[in-house]
């Protein structure tokens, strides 16, 4: 993208109220714009939970009992740690920005299912782990609906 193009994009984003305004605007438009907004919402959420010690602990303790789906092979690092969710977030963004939105959506749906199941199995689920499960269910529905529009 040229400098002039970046300048114009920045002006549009600022006009819409920053990144959150841009995402709200995209979400109002069916198809690829809505799917993009919802995938970006997922990646932000994954990045936030990657910093939560209770979520990372639940992932570490339950990954062996609830192995990730095949769609996450090659995406997840071999060891479960704070980088696990960031790796998923990074790959979803990479697929999206390489213009493979359907692949990004499939990966996102697999990740949300897996994390929702992890949250259900967590015996001493903290509020954050339970919240993650609920939010993953919500994001799964949103991404699935938006993906069906494209």
Class inferred from helices and paired strands: mainly alpha
Shape: elongated
How does the major sheet shape up?
none
Unreliable sequence segments: none
Termini gap = 25 Å
Overall residue-averaged pLDDT value: 90
Radius of gyration over C-alpha positions, nearest whole angstrom: 16 Å
List the SSEs and their pairings.
Elements: H1 3-15, H2 18-27, H3 32-49, H4 53-62, H5 83-97, H6 101-121, H7 127-149
Helix pairs in contact: 1-2, 2-3, 3-5, 3-6, 3-7, 4-6, 5-6, 6-7
Label this structure with key terms:
mainly alpha
Description:
This protein has 150 residues and is mostly helical. It has one domain (31-149). It contains seven helices and no strands. The model has no long low-confidence stretch (mean pLDDT 90).
In brief, what are we looking at here?
Helices cover 73% and strands 0% of the residues.
């Amino acid at each position: 993208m040229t400098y002039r193009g970046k300048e114009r994009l920045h002006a549009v984003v600022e006009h819409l109220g920053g990144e959150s305004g841009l995402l709200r605007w995209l979400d109002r438009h069916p198809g690829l714009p809505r799917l993009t907004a919802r995938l970006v919402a997922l990646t932000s959420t994954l990045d936030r939970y990657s910093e939560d010690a209770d979520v990372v602990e639940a992932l570490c303790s339950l990954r062996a009992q609830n192995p990730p789906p095949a769609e996450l092979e090659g995406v997840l690092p071999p060891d479960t740690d704070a980088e696990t969710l960031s790796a998923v977030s990074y790959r979803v963004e990479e697929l999206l920005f390489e213009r493979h939105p359907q692949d990004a959506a499939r990966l996102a749906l697999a990740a949300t299912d897996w994390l929702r199941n992890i949250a259900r199995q967590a015996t001493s689920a903290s509020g954050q782990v339970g919240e993650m499960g609920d939010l993953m269910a919500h994001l799964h529905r949103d991404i699935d609906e938006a993906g069906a529009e494209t």
